[in-house]
Amino acid sequence: MDARRWLSNVGSGVKGAFDENRSILSFEEWLQAFGEAPRRHARSSAQYLRDVLDHFGSEERDTPVGRVRRWKLFDLAFEPEAGALRVAGQEEVQAALYRALGTFVRSGRVSKLILLHGPNGSAKSSLVAALVRGMEAYSRTSDGALYRFHWVFPSERRLKGGAGLGFGPRADPGDLPSWAHLEGDAIDARLSCPMKDHPLLLVPKEERRRLLEERCRPTSREGASESDFVLSDYLLEGDLCPTCRQVHDALLAAYRGDWLKVLRHVQVERFYVSGRYQQGAVTVEPQHYADAGYRQITADRSAAALPAALHSLALLEPQGPLVAANRGLIEYSDLLKREPEAFKYLLGTSETARVTLDHFVLQLDLVLVASANEKQLSAFKESPEFPSFKGRLELVRVPYLRRASVEQEIYDRQITPAAVGKHVAPHATRVAALWAVLTRLKRPVPERYRGEVRDLVEDLAPLEKLRLYDVGAAPDRLSLAQSKLLRAHAGDLWHESDVYPSYEGRSGASAREIKTALFNAAQDPEARCLGPLAVLEELAAICRDKSVHDFLSQEVVDGYHDHDEFVRVAEADYLDAIDDEIRDAMGLVSEAQYLDLFERYLSLVSHWVKGEKVRNPVTGEYGPPDEQRMIELESIVKPVPEDRRDFRRGLVSTVGAYRLDHPDAATIDYVAIFPDLFRRLKDHFYDERKRQLRRSREDVLRYLSDERGSLDERARRHVEDTLRNLRDRHGYCEACAKDAILFLLRRRYEG
Predict the structure, then answer these.
(1) What is the pTM of this model?
(2) Whole-angstrom Cα distance, residue 408 to residue 427?
(3) Within 10 A of 679 (CB to CB), how many other CB atoms are there?
(4) Burial class (CB in 10 A: 0-12, 13-18, 19+), 304
(5) Structure confidence at residue 175 (pLDDT)
């Protein structure tokens, strides 16, 4: 390796990127850039954060409980190594954040503190962390460029001695209109703006307003829409921070009012949002001291390098989280864990974007976000301080997830072979997600519904409600018409408790607790895989520890909150899943066979509904649809209480509705339209072949044991095909395949 060449290449790349990004500019150069994209450079923090969300885009998604809009930023696709930190679900929270930012933009200022509240472990901090990562990535793009400025003071040697301001009698720059690009010993001192003030604040207020209105052509705030550009109070009415104001005025006096000479000292620098280095993004942990303070710059030895004109000034530099976060976002983690006296200043700061210190007032341009759990918020609402804060808070509820497939995404990303040190068997995370969501569901309130819907809702069991939320599946016991009616009201069930203090998703097992259970389940050194059975044992252990987990003390109501029973429900669901997978791997009945059988039946039903005759493929004669063939299949798939004629008409109308909703679909996905019907059809075929299933499973177990030699060639090939299918189609290894087959045989196929 040629170290010198490697370093040279890297150095050239860094220098090229630095020049391309225009990281250091004079004020004139920055003003030129402003003129090329004025709206981009005149954004407030709220506008910037909303543009961050828009930059990564969004998409509309259909769910069983309604259509939602998801902002892609929260998927963190722009940062692949951070995939485990992706925010699963919470689209309603994302929409609430976007609406709040839109309100701030249209009003021209951040007028409230956004308080994310919900149970512990509901992703409040994860949402903010994703926002910060999005800000960091966006600030590195050309559209997301942010600029601050510094004061630079050239060395006396460069300007050849003298007195006065400290630059000598020949301080007139001549052919040097700015000192922004001086390097090394050509600069005696560089004084940074501690607040990262916007460069436009250097322009006098009236001229600044005219410039902004001329170049940005803003929309009036009254009646402004999301797409309109509104100028913020920060740029229209704002002023330099106290430190920069003192420096500016001292230089202006020394130059006898020549403002252009003052601008020679301005060096504009691009900065990048960084949570790690607290640059435009800061998280404040619970604490008991103020979030802003100051120190005297002129008491520092480095101040000796400042020109004489500034020596008489008592320059005070503000510092602290609020200062570091300016022009970006500040998060107060678990805000309500602090004593009220520690955050009372937010009463004014959240409304006026100002914070008062002993010697001056700081003007801020930042979005304020805080988090609190429900217990803290409930206690705060009872305190005498709450009425003062109520109008200054934008409350955004962050509940636990209520869709098991979305909950499973969390565990699938974090419970990996690398994390637990062994293979993760299929369904290990699934049973955990299923149990977690079951613990969070509330019994529906039938009184909120009328007619037949009321009866359907009243009879809805926890697992049935979970499946309705998750995949839009109605209970098998319902007729097609009832299933359609229940699915139509899934959204009403989802939002049923939104206005209740004890809303659905407020209590139950948190994702943190479930992840701990999964890691604990992986600790058995004898187990080659992290399997569902070990996970179920950990969930049962949680249920026994009622002194630690508050949700376990809830009263059981019609099967809801019965957490011990939910472990058994998760186990039964796991048995159903592995039963289906093992049958599929053995190739006993293919999906194509079900589909072909159903399509032939549906063709007969379609002719029957229309009153048409059907051509007999054997005789060639036309006659009525074969009633016996239709009845034969209906005896398998039709819910018992439903009338045969209504069932047939319901099938045809459902297919017709699908065609209307999907006019461009080349084929019809009958399995997706009638999942319950196909499940009953498969179960019927499997029930008829139980003996063969038991024999095949026993062959698999012999193959995986010392009895492999007892199998004949045909049986051995069938077992190898089965294991290969289990591996390729479903992700099993030999160890967890054996565990699954043994468990299934013991529970369902003994005797």
Answers:
(1) 0.83
(2) 10
(3) 17
(4) exposed
(5) 43
